Amino acid sequence: MFFFCRNLKNDLCQLPNTLAWEKNWEEKMNEWRLAYQANCWGPLGGDAVGVTSSSQLVYRTFGDMERAFVDIAEAGFTGVELFDGNLLDYSAVEFRALLKRTGLRLVAGYSGANFIFDDILPEELSRITRVADRLAELDAPHLVVGGGAKRCDGVKSTDYHKLGAALDRVKYIAEKRGLTGHYHPHLSTIVEGPETVDQIFSITAIDFCPDTAHLAAAGGNPADLIRAHKNRISYVHLKGLQKDPFEFTPLDRGDIPTGPIIDALKEVGFDGWICTELDAWDDPAEGARTNMNYLKQAL
User: Fold this and answer.
1) Which helix (DSSP H) or strand (DSSP E) does residue 249 occupy?
2) How confident is the model over 266-276, as pLDDT tens digits?
3) Domains of the chain, residue spans
4) Is 111 helix (H, G, I), strand (E, B) or coil?
């Protein structure tokens, strides 16, 4: 794609095409800022203390975040998202130093909660507030949450309204700190496929963070959902999916064509951060490079 001129006179005719490609890529990069989730650099889990203390239950990647940030930056991404547990491991001063060393911008933190149980909701919101405070300290623009617990005896008719009300409180927490709050529908919660996605966003005002792989795995068409909820989308999780055996994949493979999703984002005039995600990969740095190479071609 790039031409290197050993003889400027002989190769000058190739230069305009090269410059035009680079200009188009830079313009698209300015329009769609590209971030990467740091969750691929180790096993995913949470803190055991959260079993008995809901306010301490955080997501966590059990891996080296500094290594992750270096690999993400070297792959060409300019922003990073990470789990709440990894974010809160650092003081604001330490985290700013890590961002400065790697040249990345913190774009979002991801947290989660049950949201439907009245007794523990204040504990969950206190944790989300701590996360929002740290994000605001670090000038991040987005707070993303997932959740909406499935009860052992099945979903109750009131659960969606409880979830919607809790998400409105998350939106308030975020906006009070200059952040945009987003809800991320997720497998294993009460909001997975198109019907429940439509249902929840009809009763809450929080923004919609579509995760293309989770939506597809639950039977949805990510491109159609992006079009349907275009006015609620200001941040996106882009991810590949292989259905059988189930596995999240880089964007250039799997069972979800990423091209139509990108076309839908262009069609609705999306102009924010896109966070590419790959939950697990043997070589996370190679996975990040593969995703960036795909994005360069697709955009």
Assistant:
1) strand 247-249
2) 999 999 999 99
3) 31-298
4) strand
Please name the amino acid found at residue 181: G
- What is the biggest distance separating any 2 CA atoms in the chain, rounded to whole angstroms? 76
CATH topology of domain 31-298: TIM Barrel (3.20.20)
Whether omega for the bond prior to residue 141 falls within 30 degrees of 0, making it cis, is no
Exposed, middle or buried: residue 37 (CB in 10 Å: 0-12, 13-18, 19+)? buried
Q: Which residues of 163-183 are buried (b: 16+ CB within 10 A; e: fewer)?
A: bbebbebbbebbeebebbbbb
Helix (H) or strand (E) holding 173: helix 159-176
- Token couple for 214: 């989770």
**For 7-59, what is the HEC assignment?**
CHHHHHHHHHHHHHHHHHHHHHHHHCEEEEEHHHCCCEEECHHHHCCHHHCCE
Task: Quote the CA–CA distance of 198 and 100 in Å, as a whole number.
Answer: 40
- Using pLDDT thresholds of 50, 70 and 90, give the confidence band for residue 12: very low
Instruction: Count the residues in the chain.
Output: 299
